[in-house]
Amino acid sequence: MIAAEKAPAAGAFSLFSRATPHFGPWTVALALALLTLIPLAVVASAMLHPDQTIWDHLWRHVLPELLVNTLWLVIGVGVGVTLLGTGLAWLTAACDFPGRKFFAWALLLPLALPAYVTAFVWIGLLDFTGGLATWLRESWQIAWIPPIRSRGGVILVMVLALYPYVYLTARTAFQGQGRRLLEAAQSLGISRRRAFFRVALPIARPGIIAGLSLALMETLADFGTVSVFNYNTFTTAIYKAWFSMFSLPAASQLATILVFFVLALVTLEQLSRSGARYAASARGGGGARRIRLGGANAALATSFAGLVFLLAFVIPIIQLLIWTRAIMATDLDARYLDFAWHSLLLAGLGAALVVSLAMALGYAQRLRPTPAMQFTARLATIGYALPGAVLAVGFYIPVAGLDNLIIDTWREQTGEEIGQILGGTLAVMLLAYCARFLAVGFGPVETGLARITRTMDEAAQVLGATGLKRLFRVHLPMLRAPLLAAAALAFVDIMKELPITLMTRPFGWDTLATRVFEMTSEGEWERAALPAVAICVVGLLPIFFLVKNSDART
Amino acid sequence: MLALEHVALSYGAKPVLSDVSFVLSPGQIGCLLGPSGCGKTTALRLIAGFEQLTAGEIRIGAEIVSAFANSRGFSLAPEQRRVGLVFQDYALFPHLDVAKNVAFGLAALPATDRRMRVAEMLDLVGLSHEAEAYPHQLSGGQQQRVALARALAPRPRLLLLDEPFSNLDVELREKLSLEVRDILKQEAITALLVTHDQHEAFAMADVIGVMNHGVIQQWDTPYNLYHQPANRFVADFIGQGVLLPGEVLNSRQVEIELGVLEGSVDGDCSEEGGCTQCELGCRVDVLIRPDDIIHDDASLLMAEVERKAFRGADFLYTLKLPGGQRVLAQVDSHHNHAIGEKIGIRLGVDHVVAFRK
Questions:
Q1: B152 near B121, Cβ under 8 Å?
Q2: What is the rounded CA–CA span in Å between residue B245 and residue B286?
């Protein structure tokens, strides 16, 4: 552009400098990128000067078990969710069988149940003293039930809780193909059935991988489920190192190794996707003519979908309600007002923050649509891949350090002793939530903003609406639905969140989720059911958004 | 009403527009016509105020809206130029109904005046019955008319239309372009249209600038663009035709394979375009339009039918001359000749368009 020699002339004419400041969007984007970079740098710095004694102890007694457990979990859950998710997606997207329309959206419902809730329900049911186990033993004389508290048990429960991620993305991928591609394959002499493996599946691969990597990130990040099963992974080890051994250095070192796992996963995802960004070139051709399953196949499909739905949603919900009914009269008291209030407050504040930051990032990207900005935005939203346990450690350490600095300085200056300023507040928690869930809010905001085309902006400007007028008359009305979706998603995610809340909450500040954790760690399944039901009910909210938007009803 | 004087725009070292000058008088409909990437849309955005020029001056009425002189540029903000803009994708606001879309630019008016103006505009474009519909409920043609009504509602001094009919199917495109022309003429609106479709340009515009590589090749009436193209690009871009090699005999005669053409020798006969009189013996290419070739069974000059395209009212024949040259001939549709058949033709050229080799 042309360098201005003088200050802009007053009045109608303006010099050729842009009205928006150059540094604004970049300041916002870089600040948000720091939100993920700071905790990463903090835990990574623990690796720079490792404490030899801690490291030896970890290496000898802890790491071997953690590595084996984590690998088993990732492989087991990965294979399980891929088979279950892709299979169910193909059935409901491309085939026809009794109940298909119902299952198409019902199979998404397990998303409303946090994995740790599904976990404790199934343990409660199948443990030796559990309801289902007792019933099987007494009524059917079935003496041996596979032990639920096992590696297979954890994997099974996590597959039931996490398959919807693959189901959702794979289904969208299958539906996006339309029928013309399959017709093309058939016209080239390939049977409908073989066309699935030769055409439909390869094209859906990027979608399946996207869902799979989400599910695996959840698996690596999971803290609640594995604690219920007493199955040691990095997240539980971080918790123990911090709260039993009181060793933050050990916690950070474990966190760093966990981050390596996550990075490996992200890299694998990128590699497997490269060159596989198929544009939906031959979309349409209307609704695909479905493969009509007949007789035994139809019965098989219906029972398969029904069984998954039963195990992943219906049985857990019914059991939760039964337990809640039994315990309600004695357990529901004034404390629950506190739990609920804390949960709502956190989720509300967190969601508001996440949505505001997502908006800021969205506008930064809109104002400076450069590759560098895109990269920064990706960096800022990479927090969804970072386990909550890592973020908790990564934010706690610098905030505690800052607190100590303030306390020391204050003592030197005045001679008085003061307590923590930031450590005892919600600040660490909210920061960590923002880092972890920014991507959840950014997704809808980004798509929403993309719907406001450049020409709409220009049309508004020519018609006299610029700046704030344009924001209020065009942008905000058009962004209402995406903002609502973003807020709902972030709200529910924070409500369900366990490790960050557990590790960084102010002392004695319990929420519904931490109450579930506390009760399950004492094996009190019935008493854990009450707060779990509340979480699940709220969790159903965004599923309706999802069902509405994913045209899962067709 | 609109004047561009020596306007240029370049991004870095890459020139997008060079030395663009033209004038539209009040009520006139102008058009910038050219292939994609020729700079026509950039010129429109420059006039609207979304781009900044790097040389020259733009005036709307008597007011200078963009100028660049002494290494300083001035640009009036788009919202202060009082121009209307109809976008290629219409850019209707999806959250507002038709009436609210049209009312968008009337925020400064009192409510009653605003309602009256909206009703007036919807009546003008024939959409009074769709006032409460949302854009996605309308057909492409209806959306186009809402966009026009919205742009006209604040009484702009100048209306700019960016490829306004390119998203419509061919039939609707023709019907609507005539309709829009009627509306603009009825309201005496000065307008500038940008398109790559010459039929659209011919249907809408009083005067057309053919653009290529950021330069206006010819600024003229549709009739002159077709019959007196200023250079090879315009000759090739507008209408159909072929260039046949010929030799200038004198200022009234050019000889080509088909015979000697009589008439004043037009066109850019010299490289620089400086001379109007071609010298004796000068080698030139002569533009022959399909309507310059007349089918005449009595003619001794025979040509072989190589291809034919039935177009309803007429045939477009590709004919091979004895010497191997090919010409296009527009022949009325009763004369259905087979491919390979030899038919008699003669020339019907009243003025010669020739370009020096």
A1: yes
A2: 6
Extract the tokens encoding B91.
Answer: 């850019």
CA distance B191 to B2: 9
CA dihedral B172, B175, B181, B185 (to 10 degrees): -140
The amino acid sitting at A364 is: A
Of A550, A537, A446, A450, nearest to A495 by C-alpha is: A537
Give the minimum alpha-carbon distance from A66 to chain B in angstroms, rounded to a whole number.
53
Spell out the domains of chain A, with CATH numbers in brackets: 1-48+345-466 (no CATH), 50-282+289-331+522-554 (1.10.3720.10)
- Residue recorded with tokens 């002494």: B70
Q: Tokens in use for B102?
A: 């049209």
Q: Which B-chain residues 281-310 have CB contacts (< 8 A) with chain A? A: none
In the predicted model, is pLDDT for residue A17 greater than 70? no
Cα separation values, B279 from B252, B255, B270, B286, B305, Å: 11, 13, 10, 15, 35
**H or E segment and range at residue B10:** strand B2-11
Among the listed ranges A162-171, A306-315, A401-410, B147-156, which one has the minimum average pLDDT value?
A: A401-410
Backbone angles phi, psi at A254, to 5 degrees: -65, -40
| Residue type at position A103 | F
Higher model confidence: residue A431 or residue A288? A431
Q: What's the pTM?
A: 0.80
Q: What one-letter code names the amino acid at A8? A: P
Of B151, B158, B156, B153, the residue nearest B4 (C-alpha): B158
Both tokens of residue B322?
Answer: 């004895």
Q: Phi, psi (5° rounding) for residue B279?
A: -80, 160
* Chain A environment of B74 (Cβ under 8 Å): 9, 13-15
3-class state of residue A417 by DSSP: coil
ipTM score above 0.90: no
Substitution target in B41, B87, B92, B97 with the highest count of A β-carbons within 10 Å is: B87
Segment (H or E) for B23: strand B14-24
